[in-house]
Amino acid sequence: MEHARILIIEDEQITALSIKKMLENLGYLVSDILQSGEEALGKIEKLNPDLIIMDITLSGQIDGIEAATLINKNKKIPIVYLTANTDHEVIQRAKGASHYYGYLLKPVSGIDLDWTIHTALKRHQLERSV
């Protein structure tokens, strides 16, 4: 699980850089930081991450939920949602829209980040072996 390549899709630069630093301190490799769903869709094949941390609310035409759904149509990459939004309706939409592997609320702590990523990668590994 260590050295997994993680793609951060987050349009708040300060948050993205904070998460990147936490991930690197935990031994993960950050393949890139992208700011929109459109950018992610255009670069996903080249980056080929092991896991994506996806903000639900992104700049651009599509939000993180829609981007996750489109990514999962072509590639089965575990996605962990990231948001400051605790609105029940948004959470339910995220649950129903794509095959997600976790949900982190901002501000993110290192221990929550590590635990969620470890669990998501382990679950994805188990699902692939079945």
For the biggest sheet, the summary is: 5 strands, parallel
Mean pLDDT: 91
Care to count the β-strands?
Answer: 5
> What is the CATH H-level superfamily?
Response regulator
The figure for the number of domains is 1
Provide structural commentary.
With 130 residues, this protein is of the alpha/beta class. It has a single domain (5-129), classed as Rossmann fold, CATH 3.40.50. It is built from 5 helices and 5 strands; from the N terminus they run E-H-E-H-E-H-E-H-E-H. The protein has helices at 13-25, 37-47, 64-74, 88-97, 110-129, and strands spanning 5-9, 29-34, 51-55, 79-83, 100-105. Strands 2-1-3-4-5 form a 5-stranded parallel beta sheet, with helices on both faces. Helix 2 (37-47) runs parallel beside helix 3. The chain is globular, with a radius of gyration of 13 Å.
Features of the shown structure:
5 helices; alpha/beta; single chain; five-stranded parallel β-sheet; Rossmann fold; 5 strands; 130 residues; globular
Question: Short description, anyone?
Answer:
By secondary structure, this protein is an alpha/beta fold. The protein has helices spanning 13-25, 37-47, 64-74, 88-97, 110-129; strands spanning 5-9, 29-34, 51-55, 79-83, 100-105. The radius of gyration is 13 Å and the shape is globular.
SSE topology:
Blueprint: E1 5-9, H1 13-25, E2 29-34, H2 37-47, E3 51-55, H3 64-74, E4 79-83, H4 88-97, E5 100-105, H5 110-129
Parallel strand pairs: 1-2, 1-3, 3-4, 4-5
